[in-house]
Design brief:
heterotrimer; A mainly alpha (321); B mainly alpha (286); C alpha/beta (253); A: 321 residues; mainly alpha; ABC transporter involved in vitamin B12 uptake, BtuC; two-stranded antiparallel sheet; 1% strand; C: alpha/beta; Rossmann fold; six-stranded mixed β-sheet; four-stranded antiparallel β-sheet
Chain lengths: 321, 286, 253
């Protein structure tokens, strides 16, 4: 079976598992499934610019937050919900396109700082524009009709659809010219230039792809929760958590973001439930351990070599295989 | 409020900003590491100073050297045992690592100290020079900040360790070939960064109320100062700090205090695009 | 008369007060092998950078296949058939040797798909003798191997003009002989070659014509036999004092 086929099957199984949660678990778990799907979409999005292209973007929260607000404001203006999500997607995409050409001239450290600054500036602008956005008091979004179970199931479906779309785009990019070109840029940008790749165009495309679906997710999130405010939607914690989830699974791989998000969020859930006061510290510890011992992510570990080593160690020395 | 008062306020604030940022700038410039722990180190310094004063009656000036030493130890150990393992990795790796460490420190501080604002209140009154009002505790803080920053400058230029640090910053490989133990120098540098942060926190605790919520704000200011002033140099941090202080002061006056911070960040974004090397033109790392 | 493939018309490149390249004019005809020589710091690599768009010329015009390419960006140069290798090799280290060359074929060589590009890549690897290393990471190659990889990558871009920048730097004698043979094979394919070298033996055995650069200026342009006797060239390489002494020696028989 080809690697692509394996990936598709694993992914499909996971989607089915998540989609089936309402059938065998209560609202609490459905909520968790929604969040897993949501963060998977965010991590898959980040993968385009951070994984394939190697540019350490920390702007996820900016795009997500903008998506929340554009979606919310559209809905409040009377735009039907799904259309509002599309509006948010297009807006965030255009925003990234306009910004991308400028900000992608920076590399390495400066790019990272610039991208974090973007989150802060967008948050501060939204916060200050009280007349439009309600400022620090936040914004109410017209609620979806239906009881909590129905609403939860609806949004689980929504988030899963978005996740599937981003995954599909990832597979297409991975197999095509764009993915190849982005990987070349990540390996050696100057050489990529010399080999005939229009690096600026490719980087901007990757940046826009990384932003587009964050906007969709943000708008859908706003519709789901019914209330947004600047601090929660433009969260620095989120903007760093998303790359960490992707790194955990394996940045630049196709399934990495999905695996990483699943592992991270399940871990977070266990910690939250059992160590409420210290859950941040433990999350921090997990991050540290990840960086120190799993630099390539879970999917890049050579499991066969690992098993062989463990097997060799558990055998008494001198004994024949 | 007349312009002179705003300017003076900005300068006093600016020296405090310079002091809080210089350690961050040094670590970034020499180690090529963006230290997300910096904000928490500042707050830790502030808390330790406060509790020395509150629980043991120790005057902040006496506590400051001890606080600085404690933070130095923490920084040195952290770099030597943890960060050194990945110090040559790309920025996302080291940034995420220090972010993870910061989560741990922040969590413990919040649990141990709670979020109640703490401030060392030294009732020193207000100095009036003509039409200018200068709260003495701020002046005191400014003097200390300048003293510490100046001290750091002298140490970096004059002492053997200082010159080793500068050598490593300019060319790590060459420095290693000359017998400099680069990993130890990294640990010293990070230790100094933590020390300056802690000292800045100690000074701040005399001037503002300290809570753990401020870690992000302080870190943000350090970023802005570095981009404005340039990386890895004391004069750069001073220039950047003063610039930020004055800009914030005027922005606060004309746009309202809540927008002062936005202006700082927007300025930083603009500078990143136009002249990332900052006022002193010392290039950081790509 | 064969039309010129590449013409430089009064091209200069200044870095502040440093005139790295000054008023250089020459033409390369199709099918030629031309050597670009000169002492260290003469501006040879800068000239190549300007031609390929890595740096922008301060003055002058460059035409390639009749098109004005003075303002082009490097990726455009690559797609137009202007390929160059680097003095310090620039591979994609974690990708396989095959993928490295396929990149050249896909983007510079405008192949229709990754599959086509991979095919072309295999052919080029055969040509340079690296076929056995196709699936190894580029970082696993020796320096000589990486130089061949650079060459294969450039060839995959289907260049009309190939500029080899100090392709022999760091190679030992037998590796250099191998490189020479390879370059001759490339020329047989009809590709125009500009060889930047400071190893005289290499240049002499390959080049039909020599361009000599000194302090950014073109001081000589002719066949190797003439260049060797050109007093300006001798002075540039050996210094004024020795050049005068040489002249004295020759005069006195």
């Amino acid at each position: 079976m080809t690697p692509t086929a394996t990936r598709l099957i694993v992914f499909a199984v996971w989607v089915i598992v998540l989609a089936s949660v309402p059938l065998w678990a209560g609202n609490y778990f459905v909520r968790m499934a929604i969040l897993i799907a949501m963060f998977s979409a965010l991590a898959l999005s980040w993968n385009f610019i951070g994984g394939f292209t190697g540019y350490p973007s920390l702007s996820t929260a900016a795009f997500f937050g903008l998506g929340c607000y554009v979606g919310a404001l559209s809905q409040r203006a009377g735009v039907p919900m799904v259309l509002a999500w599309l509006v948010a997607t297009v807006f965030v995409g255009a925003f990234a396109a306009a910004l991308g050409a400028i900000i992608l001239r920076l590399r390495g450290h400066y790019f990272a700082i610039g991208s974090i600054a973007l989150v802060e500036v967008t948050r501060l602008v939204i916060s200050s524009w009280g007349s439009l956005t309600g400022g620090g008091d936040g914004l109410n979004v017209p609620l979806v009709q239906g009881g909590p179970d129905a609403v939860a199931r609806t949004f689980l479906a929504v988030m899963l659809v978005i996740m599937v779309i981003v995954f599909a785009v990832t597979v297409i990019v991975d197999r095509g010219r764009l993915g190849f070109g982005l990987r070349c840029i990540q390996q050696n940008e100057d050489a990529a230039d010399m080999v005939g790749i229009d690096t600026t165009r490719y980087k901007v495309i990757a940046y826009v792809l990384s932003a587009l679906f964050c906007g969709t997710v943000g708008a859908a999130y706003a519709s789901w929760t019914g209330y947004i405010d600047p601090t929660d939607t433009f969260s620095i914690l989120m903007t760093i958590k998303v790359p960490v989830m992707c790194l955990l699974g394996g940045a630049g791989t196709v399934l990495g973001p999905v695996v990483g998000t699943a592992v991270y969020m399940l871990l977070e859930e266990v910690l939250w439930a059992n160590f409420l006061d210290y859950n941040r510290a433990i999350l921090g510890a997990v991050t540290v351990l990840l960086i120190l011992f799993l630099p390539g992510g879970l999917l890049r570990i050579d499991y066969r070599a690992l098993v062989a080593r463990v097997g060799a160690r558990s055998r008494p020395s001198g004994a024949a295989a | 409020m007349q312009y002179l008062q705003i300017l003076v306020n900005g300068i006093v604030l600016g020296t405090l900003y310079a002091c809080l940022a210089v350690g961050f700038s040094l670590v970034w410039g020499v180690l090529n590491v963006i230290n997300m722990l910096h904000g928490s180190f500042i707050i830790l310094g502030g808390y330790l100073t406060f509790f020395a004063w509150h629980s043991f009656g120790i005057h902040p000036l006496l506590a400051l050297p001890f606080v600085a030493l404690v933070l130095y130890g923490i920084g040195y150990a952290t770099q030597l045992m943890i960060i050194n393992r990945v110090v040559s990795e790309p920025v996302l790796t080291t940034l995420t690592l220090t972010f993870g460490l910061d989560l741990i420190l922040y969590n413990f501080m919040t649990v141990y100290y709670t979020a109640t604002p703490r401030r060392v209140t030294l009732d020193l009154g207000v100095l009036e020079l003509g039409d200018i009002f200068l709260p003495v505790d701020r002046l005191f803080g400014m003097a200390l900040a300048l003293l510490l920053t100046g001290l750091l400058y002298v140490v970096l230029r004059g002492s053997r360790i200082g010159r080793a640090i500068v050598a490593v910053r300019m060319d790590g490989a060459a420095a290693a070939l000359m017998g400099i133990r680069v990993d130890r120098i990294y640990a010293v540098t990070f230790g100094i960064g933590a020390l300056m942060a802690g000292a800045a926190g100690a000074i701040f605790s005399m001037v503002f109320p300290i809570t753990s919520n401020l870690t992000g704000d302080f870190l943000g200011k350090a970023f802005v100062v570095c981009v404005i002033g340039g990386l890895g140099s004391v004069p750069g941090a001073l220039a950047g700090g003063l610039a930020l202080g004055v800009i914030e002061s005027f922005a606060g006056q004309f746009f309202g205090p809540q927008h002062a911070i936005t202006v700082g960040f927007v300025l930083m974004l603009v500078l990143l695009i136009v002249k990332p090397t900052g006022l002193t033109g010392i290039k950081g790392y790509e | 008369m064969t039309t010129a493939l590449l013409t430089l018309d009064n091209v200069s490149k200044n870095f502040g007060g440093n005139h790295a390249v000054s008023n250089v004019s020459f033409a390369l005809k199709e099918g030629e092998i031309v050597g670009l020589i000169g002492p260290n710091g003469a501006g040879k690599t800068t000239l190549v950078n300007v031609i390929t768009g890595v740096q922008r010329a301060s003055n002058g015009r460059i035409r390639f296949v009749g098109v004005d390419v003075t303002e082009q960006r490097p990726y455009q140069a690559a797609r137009r058939g202007l390929a160059r290798t680097f003095q310090i090799v620039q591979p994609f280290p974690a990708m396989t040797v095959l993928e490295n060359v396929a990149a050249g074929a896909l983007f510079g060589g405008a192949q229709a798909s990754r599959a086509h590009a991979t095919e072309v890549a295999r052919q080029q690897l055969e040509f340079v003798g690296l076929a056995g290393f196709a699936d190894r990471p580029a970082s696993a190659l020796t320096l000589a191997g990486r130089k061949r990889l650079e060459l294969a990558k450039s060839l995959a871009m289907q260049p009309k003009l190939l500029m080899l920048d100090e392709v022999n730097a760091g190679l030992n004698a037998s590796e250099i002989d191998g490189a020479l043979a390879l370059i001759r094979k490339v020329a047989e394919r009809g590709i125009t070659i500009l060889v930047i070298e400071h190893l005289m033996k290499v240049v002499m055995s390959l080049a039909q014509r020599l361009l000599v650069l000194h302090h950014g200026q073109l001081i000589a342009d002719g066949v190797p036999n003439e260049i060797v006797d050109d007093p300006r060239v001798i002075e540039a390489y050996l210094g004024g004092k020795f050049a005068r002494r040489l002249k004295e020696m020759r005069r006195h028989g």
